[in-house]
Amino acid sequence: MEEKFSVTQAWHLVQVDKAKIVDLRGPSDFARGHARGALNLPYSAKGLEERLGLLLKPAVDVILFAETTEQAEGALVQLRGGSFPVAGVIEASMQDWHDNALPVDVLVEVSLAQLSAAIVEGKIVVLDVREPIEWETGHVPDAILISLGTLKDRLHELPLEAGITVICEAGVRSSAAASLLQAEGFIGVANVPEGTGGYRNAGLPLQISEHLS
Predict the structure, then answer these.
(1) Which among 110, 117, 205, 211 has the fewest CB atoms less than 10 Å away?
(2) What does the alpha-carbon distance between residue 188 and residue 107 come to, in Å, rounded to a whole number?
(3) Does residue 207 fall inside a structural domain?
(4) Alpha carbons 154 and 135: distance in angstroms, whole number
(5) How confident is the model over 25-77, as pLDDT tens digits?
(6) Is there a contact between 20 and 60 (Cβ–Cβ < 8 Å)?
């Protein structure tokens, strides 16, 4: 049976490298404040283990942080007995995290207007974490393509000295990718919640490139 952790118990396990916090909340809630080093895996009724495998290597113990008991229980059903041992669930809120003065990070969310202006000024590094077939239909000008499924093995290809703005199609995969970058020590990471879909629908200019890895 999985344990129920207080925020201080969970943070201790993270500090001694015994577990990784997996935050099941939606991208916007995660962006407003999350446990330092947590990975964002927005809850879904199926496919959680496969999606978690895009962010973590198998056999890493995880501690789940959810906004509802139903989400926590649903995630436990999906992950129990799989590749990622579930150490337990945090029975608390982000307010408890703040009240205990534990480290919290935020994830900057970039609007389409901000993104477009930064691209024109040449002051932004955009990481597109969609699949190559999506990339070929059009992408933000001068973006770098590294699909989410290969990101954890290709972090060395990204510039450490520049903040990275992450985009996908609709803001979910990019939030997960941005959380991975933050957890790995990248500074100035941001997410585009409206995604390439929003960028396209706004009539902003897309660049068409050949297939990339």
Answers:
(1) 211
(2) 9
(3) no
(4) 18
(5) 999 999 999 999 999 999 999 999 999 999 999 889 999 999 899 999 999 99
(6) yes
Domain shared by 7 and 100, yes or no: yes
Question: Do residues 139 and 209 lie in contact, with contact meaning Cβ atoms separated by under 8 Å?
Answer: yes
Three-class secondary structure of residue 40 per DSSP = strand
Strand partners, 64: 22, 89
Contact predicate 108/190, CB 8 Å: yes
Last residue of a domain, one of 105, 120, 151: 105
State which amino acid sits at residue 102: L
| Domain final position from 70, 105, 140 | 105
Which SS3 state, helix, strand or coil, does residue 90 take?
strand
> What's the CA gap between 207 and 209, in Å, rounded?
6
C-alpha 28/C-alpha 191 separation (Å) is 10
Domain range for 26? 3-105
The amino acid at 202: A
CATH of the domain at 98: 3.40.250.10
- Residue 213 pLDDT greater than 50, yes or no: no
**173 HSE (CA, 13 A, CB side):** 22
Give the number of other CB atoms < 10 A from CB of residue 47: 9
Q: Report the pLDDT value the prediction gives residue 1, as an integer from 0 to 100.
A: 59
Instruction: Report the alpha-carbon distance of residue 102 to residue 146 in Å, rounded.
Output: 32
Please measure the distance between the N-terminal and C-terminal CA atoms of the chain and give it in whole angstroms.
Answer: 41
Q: Which of 159, 172, 195 is nearest to 41 (CA)?
A: 172
